[in-house]
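seq as requested:
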Amino acid sequence: MSTSKQNRAAVLGTAFLSVALIPAGIAGAAFDPNSSVAAPARPGPPAEDVRVVDVPVTAWTVRERLRSCRPVSRGAYATDEGRRPTVPVCGQGDVVHWTADLDIDCDGLRTRWCNEETDPYFRPETAFHQADGIPLRADRLPYVVVPAPGEKWDHAAEGVGAGDPVVLLHGDRIAYAVIGDVGPADIIGEASYAAAEALGLDPHPVGGGARSGVTYLVFKDAPPRPLGSRQAAVEQGERLLRSFVNP
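struct tokens:
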């Protein structure tokens, strides 16, 4: 379980219609209202020329899908220890989402960037491990920390578990991650060194991250992928996000 947080104070779909062409013998001819010959009908566009273009996947089109919140948590979470609880976990079909800050989780394998010297609250463990049993590597794998099950919300009961794909939004940036660690039961808003880096944020475990404005979009009960594979997280996240924006 990460304890560091406790201590750090889609162009809308457009229909393109082909232009109706007037036969050359008719164009410009005067119409005789006394004529018994009916004027030829103007041809309409072929059905196959009417198509809807998918909405592009951008941070803004994703947020548009997430404008409403149906709380699935019983109450709100604080973003840091000692702060007022203001962040609910919201549900929408096969996803849950919340918008909070982003504190840096550097726990897991000890590396040049994540160790006791760079992070005074470093722990060489993560709640979830790679397939080989080794803890996750925070400076390589973008992962997100979920609150431990508690009175407000139980992520496991909601269908959120190890390796589930996560989309992170900050400004106009999109990053892909997985569920990789568990934090305090009453605090939310934490992700790995690599996740912050992918969003263009300062990834340093002390003073890095973002104070607010980070959206976490989690796809529940997704098919399992290798938990330690960043490429698998990105490929699955991109596919699921396209389906979410263009259902």
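Helices lie at 59-65, 193-198, 230-245.
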